[in-house]
Amino acid sequence: MNKSARAILNKKLYAGVYLIRKAEEFIVKNYPDNGMKTPMHMSMGQEATSVGVCEALGPRGQIVGTYRSHALFLAKTKDTKRFFGEMYGKVSGVANGKAGSMHLSSPEHGLVCVSAVVASTIPEAVGMAFANRMKQDDRVVAAFFGDGAMDAGVFWESLNFACLKRLPVLFVCEDNDLAVHVFAKNRQGFDSMIDLISQYNCVALEAEGTDVEQVHQLSVQILGLMKERNQPGFLHLKCYRYLEHVGVKEDFHVGYRSKEDFDSWFQRDPILVQRRKLLELGIQELEIVDIEQSLDKQAEEGVESAKTADFPDTKELFKGVFYGE
Amino acid sequence: MENKRKISFCDAINEALHQEMERDPNIFVYGGEGSIFGSNKGLKERFGSDRCFVTPIAEDSMTGFGIGAAINGLRPIFNHIRADFALITLNQLVNMGSTLCYGSGGEIKVPIVMRSAIGRGWGQGYQHSKSMQSVFAHFPGLKVIMPTTPYDAKGLLISAIRDDNPVICLEHRWLYWQEGYVPESSYTIPIGKGSVLKKGQDVTVVATSWMNVEAAQAAEILYKKQGVDIEIIDPRTLTPLDEEIILTSVEKTGHCVVADNDWVFCGFSAEVAAVVSEKCFYRLRSPVSRVGFAHTPCPTVRILENEFYPNAANIIRSIEKKLKLNPTDLSDENFYSHEHKFTGPF
């Protein structure tokens, strides 16, 4: 990739992670007002994984995710109005407030479904990939999940079946080392995730997931290998959750992790890393500020439009239990 | 002549599958066991192993797999040889399949059919005998069908396949050999419409699945020996439920027995009893009665199994109490037993 193409890509990736961070900062700021009555599982600190993988998959790529999917939604849609609309439970949201923070989706953008029950969307990705192949559609499906999902049997069942059927599905483990407050070492009876996964007939790669360009490169690489070998892929991306499991605050006082952990990870903060890179690539500070200001505005407009939008009519309760009804 | 053609329940299902898979290349059939008593015969040979295949024994992921395939435009039919195994599908069916349309603002459709054999026979014991219709029917977003006649089996299954929502189809294993009129051409029976299996004046029996066969025998005996004329209502689909057909019958007879192929406690029979009590209480001449499984796990040994399952005799005794009749002499009656057709190992 030449320098100018690299600069264009990196600006795009920066805009991706920055918008997510900014939108979540607005959540942190406004959440105490109690307008957003939905449990928030914040992506803060983990923005690079979503943006890097989604960019590599392209707009036709399909995604399933977890309850921690603010980053995925904004990476896929960039739509802060529908995002905040759903957070505030308004008609401008993706599902008239029926979904809230934990069930964000936008099928037309390829974010098909996410789930608040750990590991529950992983087999859906396998079925979607099966359908894509049956219909000779070459888009790839990515299933995002945390390392906690690997404690669930359905993950292993899904991986097994995808490998057996050689399906075009990419398993993306966003490994923040935590299932709620429990570290992997207290949950997992194995040492190396990648060694274990490599026993299956799939392409398995791992890296730290804080540098969005690196995540993007790794994703492009694995998608190429998947196509070449006609196998599913598994991407293991280490990252760090900045805030509490659910809620918008820091939780160092709880005692299971330390502020020093955070400080060390914050050295590789996805937004700072990418901003630094733009400067290294010779992009002017002013241009970066321009990008940031436009995204600040977009996030703020999302909040403001949600605040003024209407709540759904109460008749909405019964709509959509069955398709077309 | 087509209108005289009689085929078995099993062949009716098989014919529905062949006709639908021929019509729509998006339909595929999969599951841990290939045949379900032969109802899937010929599908793999005719439509290939991409559209009819066995899977690992992994009901949890295989349910999610089907839901995912349905989201992306296929129409999966997921097979279980026992409904007991479908307990493992519940997270996917209930947390995912039944909610995706609602939670996506009506965008996503999940046209999956989950077929399962249910029912008794030859020492199945407590993990090979459940029905679970009330479990599935409890959750909004799932449809539940329980065909009894071969005609209904074909028409309802075709409707289920064409439905844009998850549909659970529960098929009693003893019904597979029952024969009845089935048109050769394709047809649908609307999900949500019950059927009057036998007209009568004196008592309404609302029965599900195999219990309709027991109800029919009870009706025959009671008419012959007591002159009592039973009306049998087969709801055919549990959700959505055709309340109208039940209420119309009970308004006429004033008596209602619900014979459900399941436990009664918190079961479908409780739902029907509640609907009838709420909506035609003042036409009732006796309390609604329920006939169902004993409230125990299903035992294996025959002498206890016979005690566990309800049959025509239980329906007769229930009706006698209702109508204050003297006990019918049943000593010369032979009640249903499929032992001659069924000797294991399944």
List the helices and strands and how they pair.
The complex is a heterodimer of chains A (325) and B (346).
Chain A: H1 3-30, H2 47-57, E1 62-66, H3 70-77, H4 80-87, E2 111-115, H5 122-134, E3 141-146, H6 153-165, E4 169-175, E5 178-179, E6 182-183, H7 193-197, E7 203-208, H8 212-229, E8 233-238, H9 259-266, H10 270-280, H11 285-308
Parallel strand pairs in A: 1-2, 1-3, 3-4, 4-8, 7-8
Antiparallel strand pairs in A: 5-6
Helix pairs in contact in A: 1-2, 1-3, 1-10, 1-11, 2-3, 2-8, 4-11, 5-6
Chain B: E1 6-8, H1 9-23, E2 27-31, H2 43-47, E3 52-54, H3 59-71, E4 75-80, H4 90-97, H5 100-103, E5 113-118, H6 133-138, E6 143-145, H7 150-162, E7 167-172, E8 179-181, E9 195-198, E10 203-207, H8 211-226, E11 230-234, E12 237-239, H9 243-253, E13 256-263, H10 268-280, E14 289-293, H11 302-308, H12 312-323
Query: Could you say how many structural domains of chain A there are in total?
Result: 1
Largest sheet of chain B: 7 strands, mixed
pLDDT < 50 runs, ≥5 residues of chain B: 342-346
Second-tier CATH architecture of chain A: 3-Layer(aba) Sandwich
Q: Output the structural class of chain B.
A: alpha/beta
Sheet-strand content of chain B, in percent, reads 15-25%
Tell how many strands the DSSP assignment of chain A holds. Answer: 8
Count of individual domains of chain B: 2
SSE string of chain A, helix = H, strand = E? Answer: HHEHHEHEHEEEHEHEHHH
Q: Rg of chain A, please?
A: 19 Å
